[in-house]
Amino acid sequence: MTDRVSQTDFIAAAMNPERAAPLGIVGPDGTPAPKRFSVYRNNIIVSLKAAMADGFPAVASLVGDAFFAAMSDVFIRKTPPNSPILTLYGADFADFIASFEPAASLPYLSGVAQLEYALRRAYHAADALPVAARALENPHIFSAQITLAPACTMLSFAHPVAEIRAAALGGPKPTSGAQDVLITRPDLDPIATALPAGTIAITTALQAGIPLGQAIEHAPDELDLTAFIGALVSGGAITKLEYDNV
Amino acid sequence: MTHHFDMLPKSVGVGYKPQHFSDILADAAPVTWLEIHAENYMGAGGRPLAQLRALSEKFPISVHGVGLSIGSEGRLDPDHLARLKHLNDWLTPASFSEHLAWSTHDMGFYNDLLPLPYTNATLETVCDHIDEVQNTLGRQMLLENPSSYLAFSESTLDEVAFLREVTKRTGCGLLLDVNNVFVSATNLQMDARAYIDTFPLDKVGEIHLGGHDEDTDDHGAPLLIDSHGREIADPVWALYAHTIAACGAKPTLIEWDTDVPAWSVLTDEAHRAADILTPVPA
């Protein structure tokens, strides 16, 4: 018997438990060996589920291990990794959750996944040397264009996602409503700072090269601007100040 | 990089896990070198690269790829090869190794070391891929023997003959995983010592030791699973001693990748390997 097993056949059978093991896969006695083939079936899905659980601990905590395993099983079979860099696997998980019917009763869950993925990306982002805090004491600071660190991002949520994530990982219960979240990486550990909804307009403007003075015109009324700038500075998020007219 | 670790010492290394960073810098003995999985150090920056930079100043580093998919029917992923080259150029590691296996197919990455049949056709593909890797990285690589759970009826070569031919055609070295030999020999009802005795030991640049789990096959016969999640089994230690007696001292790695234990558990395993390794001349 010389049944050739193509890698296409192998993967199709490995990723679909309904399919039989490909002909041509045998045990030491030369007879078909479905249980042996299922070692690979199992290794693939178990290792990818473990990668998902590692990457989304707050989502897993919010829905429980059994639900998370079932949900990530569906996600993995639909969206297997497209690169061997598993540290960045799961970019599409938040979108998947948003349309995953069984999780519809947790409307904030997709946001928690989005936040966890953004924190993970910040963890692996390129290093950049922040400016010293005293550099902001320049009298022309409001005319400065500000470059933000690669690890710095802002996200916008309809729910208090930063608090929900923190509560899922053992923190106090959330109270607030919609919010924006600033991610910074002081030293090597990313942190999420909850800010009033609409604050994202400032970083979006800064990233478009708009000087600080004009960028903060977009600030929501509830924002404590000094605290926000302080969070950027202490988070090492400001890597360059440029003055057009100097 | 300013260090001079251009080869692995013929002593014991451990697979690096970030939770052991402080333990290793405090006192690594008897561990003298470290191995990393290449794919965990392909981010742009942050803690993983900062730790690796610090470790590489004190220890020879072996870069062990788990995602290049050298056994793929199709071509190697040029993006992944470029990432490997970037890491290799930046770190200038003491060794680079990959697996006789595949994991990528049609843009999907399946995160396991999947098996290939041993035929003249797969031999040619594997050799082409290894040529490409060695040419791109500008260095010799080591190729690791897999753990096998099954066989292919289409295979026409045995694994040792296949590996010997690969080294002959490409000039690559071999990474001999002694646990994999034991697992495959048990699973495919072969003689593990005969595998070692016919293996091209002069091409071996590194040895791996790791733990396995026990299961049963379709007929209730033992089926061992290469899990890297527990202590190395006694018969694997015996096979390692047999190997070292045959080939002399070789850089030897303790692998523990799942349910990672305290550093002291790894150094216990490292001591056990050193006890077998150190009395033997290179």
UniProtKB/TrEMBL annotation, chain A:
What positions does the domain Putative DNA-binding occupy?
7-97
Protein name per the record: Putative DNA-binding domain-containing protein
Annotated source species: Pacificibacter marinus
What is this organism's lineage?
Bacteria, Pseudomonadati, Pseudomonadota, Alphaproteobacteria, Rhodobacterales
Automatic annotation (TrEMBL), chain B:
What residue range is the signal peptide? none
Q: Which InterPro entries match?
A: MbnB/TglH/ChrH (IPR007801), Xyl_isomerase-like_sf (IPR036237)
Name one matching Pfam family: MbnB_TglH_ChrH
Against NCBIfam families, the record matches this protein to: PRK05409.1
Q: What name has this protein been given in UniProt?
A: Uncharacterized protein
- Organism of origin is Pacificibacter marinus
